[in-house]
Amino acid sequence: MQLFLDTPDVALIKDLAATGLVDGITTNPSLIAKAGRNFLEVIGEICAVIDGPVSAEVAAMDTAGMLDEGRKLASIAPNVVVKVPLTRDGLIATREFAAEGIATNVTLCFSAAQALLAAKAGASYISPFIGRLDDVGAEGMDLIVEIRAIYDNYDFDTEILAASIRTPGHVTQAALCGADCATIPPDVFNALFKHPLTERGLDQFMADWAKTGQSIL
Ligand code: G3P
User: Whose CA is nearest to atom 6 of ligand 1?
Assistant: First the structure.
């Protein structure tokens, strides 16, 4: 399973990329607004740090505008993935991007039917929003299960990118359900390393080791 970071924060990206565990990056307009930095510059900086896919989202609502913006974003670096909203215009743009060899991440997916259309349009990635479905009382993870079944039934190449991840449990469940990737906020990514029994066990081991008075080196 590929693990992406869901942030435009270059310092946080560098810190976690140093673990060798970060396969890619996703951003969205809300995260870019929160960062308060120039969008194109940030995407360029991220692509200089990360070799894997870096999703950058268009802001246009119409197909022609999405194509213009997407081509500009794709020109920043070869690993840019153009993020397109799951709308009729977005899927027409997705089909054209696929014909031009530009990778796409179709975002704001909330139903399996939408995911089926995105795959037929030639999306490289589909982003089902797990947490936002949970927020409205649905079972977000059921959507991953449904999309996995549909894509496997018809051998679609579109990768399932579990998004709107809120907890380490979401990452585990997405992996169990067969998501190809999960995009994870940095605080949740850091939480993945931790378990209280690991910390307690390590404290005990280190206390006992100190009693031996030995040194390995
Ligand atoms: O980037 C898309 C998605 O991960 C957003 O998550 O927490 O704003 O629902 P969230």
Answer: 164
Instruction: Going from the first residue of the chain to its last (217 residues), give the mean pLDDT of each consecutive group of 10, the final group possibly shorter.
Output: 98 97 98 97 98 98 98 98 98 98 98 98 98 97 98 98 98 98 98 97 98 98
- Measured from the Cβ of residue 125, the count of other Cβ atoms closer than 10 Å reads 27
- Tokens 């213009």 label which residue? 68
Q: Report the domain count for the chain.
A: 1
Give residue 75 CA to ligand 1 midpoint distance, Å.
25
Is-catalytic flag, 83?
Answer: yes
Catalytic residue among 14, 34, 72, 83, which? 83
92: in domain? yes
At residue 87, the pLDDT reads: 98
Cβ–ligand 1 contact at 163 (below 6 Å): yes
The domain containing residue 134 runs over which residues? 2-192
- Retrieve residue 123's tokens: 């999306």
Number of residues assigned to the chain: 217
Residue 103 maps to which CATH number? 3.20.20.70
